[in-house]
Design brief:
It is a single chain. This protein has three helices and no strands. The chain is mainly alpha-helical. The chain has one domain (2-76). It starts with a helix and ends with a helix. The mean pLDDT is 81.
Length: 77
Protein backbone atom coordinates (compact mmCIF):
# COMPACT_ATOMS: atom_id res chain seq x y z
CA UNK A 1 0.00 0.00 0.00
CA UNK A 2 2.78 2.40 0.94
CA UNK A 3 4.76 1.43 -2.17
CA UNK A 4 1.77 2.16 -4.39
CA UNK A 5 1.30 5.56 -2.74
CA UNK A 6 4.99 6.39 -3.18
CA UNK A 7 4.96 5.38 -6.84
CA UNK A 8 1.74 7.35 -7.38
CA UNK A 9 3.38 10.43 -5.84
CA UNK A 10 6.58 10.07 -7.88
CA UNK A 11 5.02 9.39 -11.27
CA UNK A 12 1.92 11.58 -11.16
CA UNK A 13 3.40 14.56 -9.31
CA UNK A 14 0.11 15.09 -7.47
CA UNK A 15 -0.13 15.63 -3.75
CA UNK A 16 -0.93 12.20 -2.33
CA UNK A 17 -2.20 13.58 0.98
CA UNK A 18 -4.99 15.53 -0.73
CA UNK A 19 -6.28 12.48 -2.58
CA UNK A 20 -5.43 9.56 -0.28
CA UNK A 21 -4.86 10.92 3.24
CA UNK A 22 -6.60 8.08 5.14
CA UNK A 23 -4.87 5.45 3.00
CA UNK A 24 -1.48 7.03 3.66
CA UNK A 25 -2.16 7.09 7.42
CA UNK A 26 -3.22 3.43 7.44
CA UNK A 27 -0.09 2.47 5.50
CA UNK A 28 2.13 4.31 7.98
CA UNK A 29 0.45 2.65 10.96
CA UNK A 30 0.76 -0.80 9.37
CA UNK A 31 4.48 -0.25 8.71
CA UNK A 32 5.07 0.80 12.33
CA UNK A 33 3.03 -2.13 13.65
CA UNK A 34 5.04 -4.55 11.52
CA UNK A 35 8.34 -3.17 12.80
CA UNK A 36 7.11 -3.48 16.38
CA UNK A 37 5.96 -7.09 15.86
CA UNK A 38 9.33 -8.05 14.42
CA UNK A 39 11.08 -6.36 17.35
CA UNK A 40 8.94 -8.15 19.94
CA UNK A 41 9.54 -11.47 18.19
CA UNK A 42 13.31 -10.95 18.24
CA UNK A 43 13.26 -9.99 21.92
CA UNK A 44 11.21 -13.09 22.76
CA UNK A 45 13.66 -15.28 20.84
CA UNK A 46 16.57 -13.76 22.76
CA UNK A 47 14.85 -14.38 26.10
CA UNK A 48 14.15 -18.03 25.29
CA UNK A 49 17.73 -18.62 24.13
CA UNK A 50 19.12 -16.90 27.23
CA UNK A 51 16.91 -18.94 29.57
CA UNK A 52 17.88 -22.31 28.11
CA UNK A 53 21.56 -21.37 27.82
CA UNK A 54 21.83 -20.34 31.48
CA UNK A 55 19.86 -23.24 32.96
CA UNK A 56 21.41 -25.97 30.76
CA UNK A 57 17.92 -27.43 30.30
CA UNK A 58 16.56 -28.71 27.05
CA UNK A 59 13.31 -27.17 25.81
CA UNK A 60 11.77 -30.64 25.68
CA UNK A 61 12.16 -34.07 27.28
CA UNK A 62 11.38 -37.45 25.69
CA UNK A 63 9.28 -39.47 28.11
CA UNK A 64 9.23 -42.72 26.13
CA UNK A 65 9.53 -44.02 22.58
CA UNK A 66 6.57 -45.95 21.21
CA UNK A 67 7.17 -48.12 18.14
CA UNK A 68 4.57 -49.90 16.07
CA UNK A 69 7.00 -52.36 14.49
CA UNK A 70 10.03 -53.84 16.21
CA UNK A 71 13.29 -52.14 15.38
CA UNK A 72 16.12 -53.76 13.45
CA UNK A 73 18.23 -53.95 16.61
CA UNK A 74 15.78 -56.20 18.43
CA UNK A 75 15.38 -58.48 15.37
CA UNK A 76 19.12 -59.11 15.04
CA UNK A 77 19.50 -60.39 18.62
Amino acid sequence: MATWLLLHKLFSGNNVMDEHAPLFTVAAVLILAGIQLIGVGLLGELQVRHFFTQSQNTPYAVDRIVRIRPSEESLSR
